[in-house]
Amino acid sequence: MKAETGIEGLDELIGGGLPQGRVYLLNGSPGSGKTTFGMQYLIHGVSFGDAGLYVTLMQNSEHIIADISTYSLNLSALMKMKKIFFADLGPEMEYGYMDELKEVINPESNMNPYPVEGEPPSASTVFKEIAAHVAVNDIKRVVVDPLSSIRFSNQDKCLEKMEMARFLRNLQALGCTTLLIDDQPIPVSVSSEHFAADGVILFHNPASDDEDRSLQIIKMRGVPHPVSRQAFRFGEKGIEVLGRR
């Protein structure tokens, strides 16, 4: 079974959509279209009866909603119908709190000077939030944005790789079709997520004003696909893939 993305011109390139129940990585620099892609994917799923969950780990969910509402996608209506959900797990601490806390903590003590609410969410925390929504709201499609917030929660590189692999395997076990948004520029080296994910799509910003934005399907397990860059634009309903340029 395939989960149609709803991205005009893309589903035809991947045999009708993403194989269901798997995890996919969207990789690219800021402003390259990843968030719009993710929201279009969730919203399109509603037409198939798939409830969607957008997990934001950095940007305020209200800002995402406002930005996506500029497209003709009826996001507000779908939220009221409880078809699209947001889980905002980003930092909430206001400036000044850390300074006040440091003044009352003895530097010689063994107390952790960083409060729990100031720490980035762990992979385990994010997974539990997703699993709870899946159980309560029958979620079928998930977007996690950005993956780097989870990656940077662990300072040990070996443990980071193990935890990320574990995170992806647990997401796959949920049975949802999940998109993980990575806000790093095109990676210099291949990360553990690239190996573990069932598909990888790279987003490219134009190098000059006369070039188009483009996306590139690097990996899609079990699906024949082109590897060349596919130009796209932002239309009335979001991303529209124009084809090879």
From TrEMBL:
Sequence ranges assigned to domain KaiC in this UniProt record: 1-245
GO molecular function: ATP binding
Pfam families xrefs: ATPase
Protein name, UniProt field: RecA-superfamily ATPase implicated in signal transduction
Taxonomic lineage of the native organism: Archaea, Methanobacteriati, Methanobacteriota, Stenosarchaea group, Methanomicrobia
